[in-house]
Amino acid sequence: MRSTTALSKRPFSTRRAGELLQSWREMVHPGSLPADAAAGLSVACVALPLNVALATAAGLPASVGLVSGVVAGVVGGLLSGSRFQVTGPEAALLPLAAAIVAAHGAAGLAIATVLAGVMQVAMGFVRAGRFARLIPRPVVMGFTVGIGLLLLNTQLPRLFAVEDTHANAVALVMKRTWGAHVGWLGVAAGALTALAMVTLPRLHKRIPAVLVGLTLGTGLMVWLGTGYDAVGALPRSLPMPALPSFEGVHLAGLLPAAVGLALLASLGSLLATSSLDALTGARTHSDLDQDLVAQGLANIAAGLFGGFPVMGAIVRASASIQAGARTRAASVLHALWLFVAMALLAPLVARIPIAALTAILLVVGVRLLNLEGLVAMWNQSKSTLSVVLVTALGIAVFNVFAGIGAGLALASLLYVRRHGALRLEVQRVTDASQLQRGLHVQAPEAPVAHEALDLLVARVDGPILFINHLKLYELVDGPPWAKLVVIDLSRVTLVDAAGVATLQYLAEFLAVRGAHLALVKVPPHLEAALEPIAQHLLEARMHGSLEGALLGAGLLPTAPLEAPVVLPAHAAHSAHAAHSAHP
């Protein structure tokens, strides 16, 4: 019979099901419902224009974004591993979604969204969500900065209405003839929308700055413009769910894109949920595995309704918390408010200019850059900033996965460099009397000449890794070379393959010159790793103490014990005491 503890670790365990039922009961509590309804309305005011903007930017009808927000918002809100998470179309998914639409059409995006959702559900059931907590924070920050750069690069030509001749902002800047084709009235409408988004929240946080900005930008276009690129007609109800049509879709070419969409949506959602835990100061972490399952089901639902792919959105969730959300009802109600807007306000939404929607995405992109955070990081830790910039530039120049991979690699390298510093304490010993006093051994009856003792003692502190192993070559920096090089490994935490190879090289190098290498005080956890080079060491042994190494080399000027001292590190102390008591 399975234990309760084992069941509790599964995404939809009995314990989690009970918690979900309890959270659903809290949704309809009279004491919290008004606050959740108000918070949901505030989030809907942000989500409605953003959903429309993302859909149109990907080359889809505006209704696709609204439908996705409604359907996925309800599913994700009810089942999310975090009670404050808000699910919907997100800017991070736009570049990949637009690429899928360009290559496979709207039907291809719907298929990829369903497939991605299935993969997310599978990842949730194998408990892959826990690995999200291992991602370094600089990589997370680089992810958001990179998405901001992508938005700026792709949306500036749309604002200037030159996307047909200039595919991105880089091409826009490089060519000086772009000004002749700009739709300046649209630029003015977008600028007015952006200005309202930036300035109005400073006057009062509860002002729906996005809606006010859209109203002003739309009013300017309607008043001065005779014809402009607008959202267009919208349906007043949800379409019937249906399996996407595979006709004309190259599934083999679409599958890699679906895998990328699943990984990107999962990563973004998990990072958003982890950030929510930090934002709310929750004593218990959200269930990331359940969140994967919930986001997967939301994507399946969005795909069946022909919608845009979705993920957990930190911007909307934080807006919900700031607006006073108390339960997961706020997330669900935000989706219902979107449906009400689609049903009742479709004629008004249809007249919104594309330039104003593009301005919303540009403001979002600038905010994702987090310029203040980058400046503060420059002053605090330039190495951490380098991880952020490498991640962001990799995302902007290549793709999301290349950027995240480069950021993780650099963060790992910096971590190993920071925590893997190798320190050497080296002493060249030629005075036998000083060595005897240091070892507490009895002096010989006949004095020993100084040249009879030629010893190099080194204490290594830290791991011996591929990034620092070359420092050990200082021990054979000669000539002349010592007749015995003793390395104290008592403070070594780890030796990798490069470290083992270097130690073996040192032993062979000294052997050719008639000298010896001895390893003393080897920790038990390193004995197995160093065993392959034991045959190259002094008397094929790793000694427990410096005395044992000296006795084995015949360099200790006193009568030896019955056999050379060959003990593991944990017995070295007792051997030293015994040797001192019985010279």
| Spatial strand sequence of the major β-sheet | 3-4-5-6
The parts where pLDDT drops under 50 for at least 5 residues are 1-12, 436-451, 558-583
Instruction: Identify the overall geometry.
Output: elongated
Strand coverage percent? 5-15%
Helix fraction? Answer: 55-70%
Helix and strand sequence: HHHHEHHHHHHHEHHHHHHHEHEEHEHHH
Task: Tally the helices.
Answer: 23
Q: Helix/strand-derived class? A: mainly alpha
- Sheet bearing the most strands, described? 4 strands, mixed
CA-CA gap between termini = 64 Å
Gyration radius, in Å = 33 Å
The chain-level mean pLDDT equals 78
Based on DSSP secondary structure assignment, what is the total number of beta strands?
Answer: 6
Membrane topology: Multi-pass membrane protein
Domain STAS: 445-553
Subcellular location: Membrane
Main location: membrane
Structural overview:
- The chain has helices at residues 4-8, 14-27, 33-57, 62-79, 94-125, 137-159, 169-174, 184-203, 209-224, 251-280, 288-304, 314-322, 329-344, 346-349, 354-369, 371-380, 382-397, 400-419, 432-439, 497-512, 524-530, 546-553, 572-581, and strands at 87-88, 311-312, 423-429, 455-461, 484-491, 516-520.
- The protein is mainly α and 583 residues long.
- The relative contact order is 0.13.
Characteristics:
583 residues, mainly alpha, 4-stranded mixed beta sheet, 23 helices, 6 strands, 59% helix, disordered N terminus, transmembrane, SulP family inorganic anion transporter, transmembrane helix, membrane
